[in-house]
Design goal:
Helix content is 15%, strand content 36%. With 194 residues, the chain is α/β, with parallel strands linked by helices. The radius of gyration is 15 Å and the shape is globular.
Length: 194
């Protein structure tokens, strides 16, 4: 599987047969995307569904619940209007926090995403999770890989300092279950595909 960052909070998970889009839209007036073919598209905030850049044949998830699409398992849980997801794709568990704000994760929230292999979460502050809040969430979830989203250069530097883990920068993350780190947590900074 590979994970690509298309900008802000839009990610693409894909293997040779399937494509999963996470929040396929732009909140930035300067960035535009074309519609893309996908098997599955997830929206953490249903109000952005109408601006989503996904072709009609995709199975769209924009509500909490349990889903299975072509052996991809998705579990959605709503917190203060936002939906967080756990995606099981190629036997790798990916927690996607979307546009998560300043909420605290309850024990029930953590039940869904605790122990995820990969955690994708906002770190840019403003209306979204701050660097300090992101580090607290990471310590609760205990993932093997962290991928920050919703950031600019200054906010990512602040997050790296707060987190204290040396990042690896890459164009895309290619990963399989056997490649997941066993000991230390990895911080992966993806470069935007634009």
């Amino acid at each position: 599987m590979q994970i690509l960052w298309e900008g802000f909070n839009y990610f693409k998970l894909q293997n040779s047969q399937q494509t999963v889009l996470l929040n396929p839209y732009s909140l930035d007036k300067n960035t535009s995307f074309s519609k893309i073919k996908a098997d599955l598209a997830l929206f953490s905030d249903p109000k952005y569904l109408e601006v989503g850049k996904v072709k009609d044949e995709a199975f769209v998830i924009e509500a909490p619940g349990e889903y299975e699409v072509n052996e991809i398992f998705v579990y959605g849980h709503k917190i203060n209007g936002q939906i967080i997801y756990l995606i099981n794709f190629e036997d790798i568990k990916i927690a996607f926090l979307g546009e998560f704000g300043h909420q605290v994760l309850s024990d029930q929230d953590l039940e869904l995403i605790e122990g995820a292999d990969i955690l994708i979460l906002p770190v840019g502050g403003g209306d979204l999770t701050t660097a300090k809040e992101a580090v607290k969430i990471i310590s609760q979830v205990e993932p093997r890989i962290v991928i920050p989203s919703c950031h600019q250069a200054d906010s990512i530097a602040l997050f790296i300092k707060e987190f204290g883990v040396k990042p690896e920068e890459m164009d895309k993350l290619k990963i399989s279950k056997k490649d997941l780190p066993q000991e230390d947590i990895k911080l992966i900074i993806l470069k935007t595909q634009k």
